[in-house]
Amino acid sequence: MSPARISPRRRPGLFRLSALASGAALVSAGAASGAERITGSVGGYMYIGAGVTDASISGDTELVLIRDGEIHLKARGSSDSGLNFAVQVEVEAFTSALDQIDENWARVDGAFGEVWVGGADTALNEYGQVGIVFATGPYNYYDADIFVAPGGVGMVGKDDALSIRYGLPENRYGIRAGVSYQPDATADGLGDTARSLPRAGAGPLRADHQVAVGASWRSPTPYHGFGLSVGGGYLNSDGPAGTEMMHAGAEITYTTGEDLVTLAGFWNRRDGRGRTDHVGLGAMYQFDAWKIGGGVMTANGTADALHATFGGTYLLAPGVDVSAAVEYGEADLSLVGEGYAVLTSLNIRF
After folding, report:
1. pLDDT tens-digit series, residues 99-134
2. Contact (CB, 8 A) for 130 and 249
3. Contact call for residues 125 and 139 (beta carbons, < 8 A)
4. Does any domain span residue 26?
5. Residue 21 falls inside a structural domain
6. Residue 17 is assigned to a structural domain of this protein
């Protein structure tokens, strides 16, 4: 008879050993009571819309349908030593010519701060981007879906190439800061890779050794209803497509009762194959379930451009809002020169 089939009654020593092991396991479980098993969840959004625009190659006013969405696969957990673990993979709702997977990363955070490895925004964008506020969606995001050509005013330091990023721990002073490094800043979209290393000289679009820093401060408590946020950052990369980017921005808020007024402004500089300065001003008023506002952004330098928008958003239900906006854009390097767009949209987040 094998030891595995001997009953505890015939092996009293084994019974006592099993009981001792069980007790030790209970003590261990009690010591690890602060830990949380890794659990998964699914989230994401679906954005649909329709509008009209004359920003078409023909120059005629055309009906435009818009669709954008992502499925977010998430996992979260923690250890009893105070470490938190997170994983997120963002799958595009449809296959495009450039991308199927958006951000994809793993994060470990604790009292020391947070460390990210994977495809995620640079530290400039994550920690330093301040001063970009609009009522109908993130700046330079949905507007690109309806504007076929005009625009040309964009955020800096926003790409999802394989990188490592460190951020300071949360603190009561309202300070966020961090640094990131991307060996190959062009390894995104169809250039995704499981292993990233500098490949300078491998092509005219290469940007290697990309380093970015970003920092921001938000007033922890309002002063007579007023709040202030300031931020900025710097990015530099080598290679044939190496570039230098800078950002500075500020937001002023005023809260009265349940209403919130926000004034924002920013300055960006892109300096690579030509220099372009971006300047933007925006304002937003939030009350009840409404957000109303707009802004103007300009680009001056190698490529001049202007982009203006005004609109509003209404919260229909938790996670569901409807928006309407009027936009105008012009750009020197655009095939159509200038154009307008009128947009209505529905955004469902889950």
Report:
1. 788 899 999 999 999 999 999 989 998 999 888 766
2. yes
3. no
4. no
5. no
6. no
Quick one: tokens of 226? 């007023």
> What is the distance between the alpha carbons of residues 243 and 239, in angstroms, rounded to a whole number?
9
3-state secondary structure of 40: strand
* Confidence band of 327 (pLDDT split at 50, 70, 90): confident
| Enclosing domain of residue 111 | 35-349
Neighbours of 265 (CB within 10 A): 19
First to last CA, the chain: 57
Residue pair 233/212 in contact by the 8 Å Cβ criterion: yes
Give pLDDT tens digits for 315-324.
999 999 999 9
Q: Report the distance separating Cα 273 and Cα 168, nearest Å.
A: 33
Residue 103 lies in a domain: yes
- For residues 249 and 124, is the Cβ–Cβ distance under 8 A? no
CATH number of the domain residue 238 falls in: 2.40.160.10
pTM: 0.81
